[in-house]
Amino acid sequence: MTAAVAGFALFALLVTMAPGPDTLLVLRNCVRGGRRTGAATAVGAAVGSLAWAVAAAFGLAAALQRWDAAFTAVRLVGAAYLVVLGGQALWAHRRSAPATASDRGAGADDAGHTAPVHGEAGPLAPVRAFRQGLLSCLLNPKVGIFFVAVVPQFLPEGHSVLGATLLLGAVDALIAAGWLLLVVGCAGRVLRRLRQPRVQRNLERATGGVLVALGTVTAAETVSA
Predict the structure, then answer these.
(1) 70-103 in b/e burial notation, b at 16+ Cβ within 10 A?
(2) How far apart are CA 90 and CA 173, in angstroms?
(3) Of 100, 129, 139, 185, which residue is most buried, by most CB within 10 angstroms?
(4) Taking each helix axis from N to C terminus, what angle separates 35-57 and 141-150, rounded to the nearest 10 degrees?
């Protein structure tokens, strides 16, 4: 059992380290609200991963894989959500485009919070950041398919399939949380630089464009499949 868990953990770590929507959201929310907001996003994504593991253990993800209409619907909703998040980032960039003299002084205060940029609302609340991370993962059926396709390769003989799947799902969630929190920690070292108004606007524009592109490509692949 130990060898199976260790092998799965290594594989899950390699998959988790690949940049994706969750990582983009964590970085973006670090800039918008600081390390605490980025950490909330990371925890939300990890909880979403754990929810998919539970669903896979009880057969929901397997049903999605067999039922094309359900998989297509969930994937399109997820793609739309990415486009909405990206559109919000681009809209915030557009509203704050003309830099003013007051922008040059904007940044993080001593408590680690982000000062609002001209034309934007206040910093992103951790609760909302958690919800964004959670929905980003829940609306990605590939996470569920990952468990259905990969977990059986690591299930040890002589153990309950349900129990082993839940255990591996918990391992995957912990790895996802750990990696994304590491991303938050690394981002925290450069937050002062990232919070400069011009850098923040450029990052919002870049991440917004990437999220819209990811959602658009996902929707196009789903429709053409």
Answers:
(1) ebeebbbebbebbbebbeebbebbeebeeeeeeb
(2) 30
(3) 129
(4) 50
If DSSP states are collapsed to H, E and C, what string results for 145-188? Answer: HHHHHHHHHHCCCCCCHHHHHHHHHHHHHHHHHHHHHHHHHHHH
Q: Which residue has the higher pLDDT, 32 or 122?
A: 32
- The residues facing 108 across adjacent strands are 114
φ and ψ at residue 4, rounded to 5 degrees: -65, -45
The arithmetic mean of pLDDT across residues 80-95, rounded, is 71
pTM over 0.90: no
CA dist., res. 57 & res. 47, Å (int): 15
Cα(62)–Cα(58) distance, integer angstroms: 9
Residue 211 has pLDDT above 60, yes or no: yes
> What is the identity of the amino acid at 113?
H
What does the domain layout of the chain look like in residue ranges?
A: 2-75+98-198
